[in-house]
Specification:
two-stranded antiparallel ribbon, 499 residues, 5-stranded mixed beta sheet, extended, alpha/beta
C-alpha cells in the first residue's frame, strides 16, 4: 500500500516542480525585460533632460542683449530680444540733472576771441512806448550778451612753388632750388593732420573724408589718404614709444582687447589704459605674450581686466571687473539650474556697490559717506557671503553653475582688491578701456590691408585718445607733430611729468 501511494504521489510532485520552475523563469524574464525597459527609459529621460537644458541655454542666449552679454548694442533690435528701455520701477529721482551733476552748457567765448561787436539798442521804451533818441540816451548796468558763432567762407589755401632752372654762367648746368622740408609733401601740416583726425577721432570712412574735403574745403586729395596716415604715424612714433616705456611704471592699468580684421585675417586690438594716457597695440594673438611685451614679465602695479584667461595667468596683482561678472549673471539668470545662485550673487553685487558709491561720495548714494577703513569693515562680511555660495556650487553637476561659481571661489581675492588699494576701481568702465577698445573698431570706418596700416592705426589711436584724456587738442597736437617731423625736430612728449 505504501509503495502504491508513493508511486501515485511522485508524478504530482514532478508536475508541481515543473510549474514552479516555469513560473520562476517567466518572472526572471519579466524582471530582465523590465530592467532593460527601465534602463532604456532612464537613457531617454537623461537624453531629454540634456535636450531641454540645451534648448534652455539656446533660448537664453537668443534672448541675450548688450546688457547681458558681449553683444554690441546694435544687435539688440535684430539678434535677440530688444533691451528693455526705461526703468522697470518708478524712480524717486526728479527728471533732469541730479544734485552734484556738472552742467554741460555752451560756454561764452572770451572777449579776446570775439571778432565783431554789434551794439543793439532799443528804439522805444517798453513801458511808456516813447522814443529813445540817440542824443539823450542814458545807458545803465552791464549789457546783455548774445553770441552767434559762424564759419567764415571755407576755401583751401593753395601755394604753388615755382622752381625755375637756373643755368650756370660757366658750365651751363641747370640748377633747381631745393624745397623746404615742411613743404615737400603735397599737403600742408594742418590738412594732413585733419585727414588723420577725421578718420580716427571722428571715425569717418575714407571716401566720406575725401568727399568732405572736396566739397567743403575745395581740397580734393584723391587716393592720398593712406600716404597721409603713414606720414602722421611716423611723426608720432617717438611719443608713442615714450608712452609704451612709461606704461610698465604706472600704479593702475585697465586692460581690454577686441577683435579686428585685416584682409579677413583675425587681429586683436589691445588697449592698456593708464590714469593719464592709453596705449593701443594691434596683435595677431590674444595670448598673454602681448601683456608681457607691453608690461614686462611681472607688473608691479594693479591690472584691472575681465576674467579672460591670459589675464589670469599673468604675473601681477589683478582686479577682476564686477561689471563683466554681473553681465554673466544676468545672462545666466533665466536658466533653471543657475537661478538661485544668480539671484544671491546679484543681491550681493547691489549691496557691494551701494557701499562703494558711499565711499566715492556719489550724491545719489543713501547713507553717510564712508572712508577707507569703514569701507573695509563693511565689505568684509560681503566677501564671506560671496565665498560661501560659490563654495557650495563649485562642484555642481551643472556646467553653467559650476563656471559661474568657480570665478569667485578660485579668484576670490581678485574681486575685492579695489577695497584695499587707492586708485583701483571695481569695474573696467571708469577708465575708458572698454570704450577705448570697443569704440575703436565699432564701425568699418578703417580697413587696414598691411602691417604699416595696422601700426599707423594703433599709433594714431594712442595719440588721439591720450590727448582727449589730457584735455589737449588732438588736431593741434597732430599738426605740431607733423611740422616738427618735417623739420627733423623733436616732437612734444605726451608722458605725464610725474610718471
Amino acid at each position: 500500500r505504501e509503495c502504491r501511494a508513493a508511486a501515485t504521489f511522485a508524478p504530482k510532485t514532478d508536475a508541481w516542480s515543473g510549474a514552479v520552475s516555469d513560473r520562476d523563469g517567466r518572472q526572471t524574464r519579466e524582471v530582465e525585460r523590465l530592467t532593460r525597459e527601465n534602463a532604456r527609459l532612464r537613457d531617454e529621460a537623461a537624453k531629454r533632460d540634456r535636450q531641454i537644458a540645451d534648448l534652455e541655454r539656446q533660448l537664453t542666449l537668443r534672448d541675450q542683449n548688450s546688457t547681458t552679454s558681449s553683444k554690441p548694442p546694435s544687435s539688440d533690435g535684430l539678434a535677440g530680444r530688444p533691451r528693455t528701455r526705461g526703468r522697470r520701477t518708478t524712480s524717486r529721482r526728479k527728471p533732469g540733472g541730479q544734485p552734484g551733476h556738472p552742467g554741460h552748457c555752451r560756454s561764452v567765448v572770451p572777449p579776446e576771441r570775439v571778432n565783431v561787436v554789434v551794439d543793439v539798442l532799443p528804439a522805444t521804451c517798453r513801458r511808456c512806448h516813447r522814443g529813445l533818441p540817440a542824443r539823450n540816451r542814458r545807458v545803465t548796468g552791464a549789457p546783455r550778451c548774445h553770441q552767434v558763432t559762424e564759419l567764415p567762407p571755407i576755401d583751401a589755401h593753395v601755394t604753388d612753388y615755382h622752381c625755375p632752372g637756373v643755368v650756370g654762367p660757366s658750365c651751363w648746368t641747370t640748377t633747381y632750388a631745393p624745397l623746404q622740408a615742411d613743404v615737400v609733401g603735397q599737403f600742408g601740416p594742418q590738412l594732413t593732420a585733419l585727414i588723420a583726425y577725421l578718420t580716427v577721432v571722428c571715425r569717418m570712412p575714407r571716401r566720406v573724408v575725401q568727399a568732405l574735403l572736396a566739397d567743403a574745403l575745395h581740397a580734393p586729395i584723391g587716393g592720398q589718404t593712406q600716404a597721409t596716415w603713414e606720414e602722421t604715424s611716423a611723426a608720432v612714433a617717438g611719443p608713442c614709444l615714450e608712452l609704451e616705456q612709461a606704461l610698465a611704471h604706472q600704479p593702475v592699468i585697465n586692460g581690454d582687447e577686441t577683435g579686428h580684421r585685416t584682409n579677413g585675417d583675425k587681429r586683436w586690438l589691445w588697449a592698456q589704459v593708464a590714469p593719464q594716457f592709453v596705449i593701443y597695440r594691434m596683435a595677431t594673438t590674444r595670448a598673454a605674450t602681448v601683456l608681457v611685451a607691453l608690461l614686462g614679465d611681472v607688473f608691479s602695479g594693479v591690472l584691472c581686466s575681465d576674467r579672460w584667461k591670459p589675464y589670469q595667468t599673468y604675473q601681477g596683482a589683478l582686479q577682476f571687473c564686477w561689471a563683466h561678472f554681473k553681465r554673466d549673471l544676468l545672462g545666466a539668470r533665466d536658466l533653471a539650474k543657475t537661478r538661485d545662485f544668480c539671484r544671491d550673487a546679484l543681491a550681493l553685487h547691489a549691496r557691494l556697490f551701494r557701499l562703494w558709491y558711499r565711499y566715492r561720495g556719489d550724491p545719489a548714494a543713501r547713507g553717510t559717506p564712508l572712508t577707507r577703513t569703514p569701507l573695509i569693515d563693511e565689505v568684509l562680511p560681503l566677501e564671506r557671503q560671496c565665498f560661501a555660495p560659490a563654495e557650495r556650487h563649485v562642484t555642481s553637476r551643472h556646467k553653467d553653475v559650476r563656471n559661474l561659481a568657480t570665478a569667485p571661489f578660485v579668484h576670490h581675492h581678485k574681486f575685492f582688491l579695489f577695497v584695499h588699494h587707492n586708485g583701483v576701481e571695481p569695474t573696467n568702465n571708469v577708465a575708458p578701456s572698454e570704450r577705448a577698445s570697443g569704440s575703436a573698431v565699432d564701425k568699418d570706418y578703417v580697413w587696414e590691408r598691411s602691417a604699416e596700416g595696422e601700426l599707423a592705426f594703433a599709433r594714431l589711436l594712442t595719440v588721439t585718445r591720450t590727448c582727449q584724456m589730457q584735455q589737449l587738442s588732438a588736431l593741434a597736437y597732430l599738426t605740431a607733430a607733423i611740422v616738427a617731423h618735417r623739420r627733423r625736430h623733436a616732437v612734444a612728449s605726451l608722458v605725464p611729468k610725474h610718471s
